[in-house]
């Protein structure tokens, strides 16, 4: 037994030693692979002449430095709106100079927003041998020589694969296949929904050693580095020099296409790094620039001290808090619109409560009169009969029931609007309009039932006379009263719907 236990212990020791050796070998292999990957990663250098980013994006003359914009593109201080949410719009921005590097990487931040469930047409990112300033392919020229990465919003071929990202190459001779959304010419693609996201969508496009890679950040999180793989094209030959650009277009449907930044980086193989700009500057010029920088810094410090002395109440407060960003302005406009709808529905609910109280008082008066006449007094010529009075009472009860249904419908609508206080709440506006249509339909049904009951109970050879009711000084026809109430309610609801549509139509120009 002791010998057997000794042999078992030796076997366990040998197995542990083999396992430790295997783990050590795996660790060394992993370290070697990591070192190889680090060594193989390209050198990355920012190229400001092929990039733009806010704030202070536009110069005094309305142009963007090193970039040219055409068509319906509108530059602003913090972004470039390639197209507005209007039909048949085209716009684009292109670099003024050709790139002087073979491999590159670009990071594009953009927003595609629209009021509809479906958008059109889409946005495209370009690297071409010549500028495609205007044309039918997402606002840029066809028959390009280079590559286009298309963010297609509209499903032309009906395959339900849009919105999507499509990589299409061209040698300058092919026409883009619009009817099939470029599927017959696509080198790679992926299906991604980039419309109406809470955060800007980001695309990272890398061309290195004849391989094009597309990574997408869907805009669900504020993390700028949260990219996921979209497409990859190997053995792709692009022009050694070309123009970078971004374009967009709208059709029968329309979206706002906004580009917040376009950052370009030069990629260089390891060991072939180009000298930095500081290395090319002579020592005398460096000293001169350093003296000028120090002088400017001193002047800036003096101005800061003077400003703090003149404005002691704003010391320690960040300057960014005094300005409103684009996203904050959009959120404020959405919440203000929702609050206006909320107040209008409350006003409508109060109006319905007033109508309901009037109807109850009228029914109470008619019921009291019926009780007074229930003593068996015979009807006289020219007075309304007991059967007609019963009919009127039933009609009043039916009206009360319809008004209660309308009140509950308005209450449901109020809850829906209260729960729709978030950006992109197009479904809440649609539900509100649907409830308004339901209320209008209920009022039409009430009006039709009242007219039918009055015509059915009115004798053909004589006109109906109003009952002699002591509480009322004048004779008022029941039909005229309810028609007046119904018409007044319909006009009030129609005015609210018209006002809501006008305010919604005006929002998209902000």
Describe this structure in words.
This protein is an alpha+beta fold and 510 residues long. It folds into 2 domains: 48-273, Jelly Rolls (Sandwich); 328-507, no CATH class. The protein is built from 7 helices and 16 strands. The strands form 2 sheets. Strands 1, 2, 4, 5, 7, 12, 13, 14 and 16 form a 9-stranded antiparallel beta sheet that branches. The chain has a 7-stranded antiparallel beta sheet with strand order 3-6-15-8-9-10-11, with no helix packed on it. Strand 12 (201-208) and strand 13 (211-217) form a beta hairpin. Helix 6 (426-457) packs antiparallel against helix 7. It starts with a helix and ends with a helix.
Order of helices and strands: HEEEEEEEEEEEEEEEEHHHHHH
Low-pLDDT regions: 1-7, 11-20, 22-26, 29-39, 377-382, 420-429
Please tally the helical runs, counting DSSP H or I stretches of 4 or more residues.
Answer: 7
- What number is the mean pLDDT? 78
Number of β-strand runs: 16
Quaternary structure of the protein: single chain
Total domain count: 2
What would the principal axes of the Cα set say about the shape?
A: elongated
Beta-strand portion reads 15-25%
Which value, in Å, is the CA radius of gyration?
A: 37 Å
Task: Name the CATH class of the largest domain.
Answer: Mainly Beta
Structural class: alpha+beta
Biggest β-sheet description: 9 strands, antiparallel
What is the CATH third-level topology name of the largest domain?
Answer: Jelly Rolls
Distance between the termini: 90 Å
CATH architecture descriptor name of the largest domain? Sandwich
Query: Helix proportion of residues, in percent?
Result: 40-55%
